[in-house]
Amino acid sequence: MPAWSLATACEEETSQLGRCLGRLIEQPLVILLSGDLGAGKTCFSRGLARGLGVPEEEPIASPSYTLMNAYQGRLELYHFDLYRLAEPDDLLELGMEEYLPGAGVAVVEWADLFTGLAREYLAVHLSHQQADQRRIECRAVGAAAQILLQRWQGEWLRQAGGDD
Asked: Quick check: 152 and 51 in contact, CB under 8 A?
């Protein structure tokens, strides 16, 4: 299972990492986000939305209370937050089976609270380091996600002008 580990130095860089990924996505995809509270999942998702072409003037907020927000870009973005869900049956009530996989990009915050959400996906785990620094662990499951992970890593390193 291909994996990539890197660090970001600030919130803006975490957002830029998401934006870089969003620009590369060309087909429906499931992105499973995990990490501690405040680790940057929504910041990453905001960048992802911008990379997918969601207009800058449209606010991207955590769907903590609405559970899912939809945004229109090059591909539709379905932004889920599972933090407040307790049982697998809650996922059925939310209708997640329509989106994982679906016709757009589904990004799922707190995906680690439930197993078996998707057969193919890109998993991104964010963890606090110091101050605004984050450690980000990425892994791909499935052929399309593996190719995308390689392209994302290459593009990020190209933009940064070096290796990480």
From this structure: no
Residue type, 106: A
DSSP assignment string, 2-33: -EEEEEESSHHHHHHHHHHHHHH--S-EEEEE
**Angle at the Cα of 105 (from 109 to 72), degrees rounded to 5?**
105
Torsion of Cα atoms, 109 then 62 then 52 then 164, to 10°: -60
The pLDDT, as a whole number, for residue 130 is 83
What pLDDT is stored for residue 90 in this prediction?
Answer: 79
pLDDT along the chain (164 residues), means of 10: 91 95 96 92 94 93 77 94 82 78 90 89 93 92 95 91 54
Q: Do 97 and 124 meet the contact criterion of CB atoms below 8 Å apart?
A: no
Please report the domains of the chain, with CATH numbers, ordered by start residue.
Answer: 3-160 (3.40.50.300)
